[in-house]
Amino acid sequence: MHLRLRLVNLAARWRFKRHAARPLDVTWARARLGRPLWTRRLITPPIQRTVLRDAHGTIDLLRPPVQGGATLVERALLYVHGGGYFACSTDTHRPLAARLAREWRAAAFVPEYRLAPEHPFPAARDDVLHAWRRMLEQHAVRPEHTVWAGDSAGGGLALSAALACRDEGLPLPAAIVTFSPWLDLTGSGASVTENAERCAMFVPDQLAAAAQLYAGARPLSDPGVSPLFGALDTLPPVCVHASESELLRDDAVRFAAAAAAAGVTVEARLWPDVPHVWQFLAGVLPEARASLDAARAFVERHVPAARDGVHAR
């Protein structure tokens, strides 16, 4: 483990894991996850931001800035932020969403979905589907030029919403990219216990508590709650990146195997020693830069650029 990665893991343990012994406190976590926001603003690349509002909620629309004339936006991106389904926001995850928008030359739509426990499943999934309908109906987004992406709970939520598209009569995007996705809220993966000490951020009890807040009255094994257990054959190509040392390692590994068995094109990769959703640290960790480069290559292979551009308004 090189020095930068060692320091990042130490910082993550100090920031997150030293509080792991306390019961999950939603108010306390919301006040601290992704905070202070000024640090997020510091690492957010330049981006054009528009807030879209309707009676259902808000969506951040992020577009690469115009530099030296018009910048052609070639794709659309629906980005779903993480936060255990009970915390974080479009503000906390703007650095990563903005970076993907710039690197994928995409107009990124980032919905501010409702959080548990005030709004358990299926509220968050319904909000993502509503954002997708808005993209299609109000912003002339074409599915064949669209990629969905998400991190942690957001990765699980993106896949859950994609599985629901069949029943909702909605088209699917051309591809989906997930970083450290949370796909099994039953916690049955071996890595939940095997990596309890190695993971720099979380402990099993925290996952179990957050899972119950989100599931509400639904069984944790419900495919809408835990997309690992869904019928995966309808999914478009999926990219999955996770850490070998995080609690959710086996969510990624088992999903990749199940999706491939169902005939889905899957590109899965594990990185050693990195913390959960390390992609935020692209300016610090070479592993983060490598993950984002691999994700960009995946998008370029599976999501064709719109020749006339994406005119999201």
What distinguishing features does this structure have?
313 residues; alpha/beta; 10 helices
Layout of secondary structure:
Elements: H1 3-15, H2 26-32, H3 37-43, E1 48-54, E2 57-63, E3 75-80, H4 94-103, E4 106-111, H5 123-138, E5 146-151, H6 153-168, E6 175-179, H7 191-194, H8 204-215, E7 238-243, H9 249-261, E8 266-271, H10 286-302
Helix pairs in contact: 5-6
- Give the mean pLDDT: 93
Q: List the total number of helices.
A: 10
Flag low-confidence runs.
none
Please trace the helix and strand order, writing H or E for each element: HHHEEEHEHEHEHHEHEH
How many strands?
8
CA radius of gyration is 18 Å
Spatial separation of the terminal alpha carbons: 45 Å
What does this entry show, briefly?
The chain is an alpha/beta fold and 313 residues long.
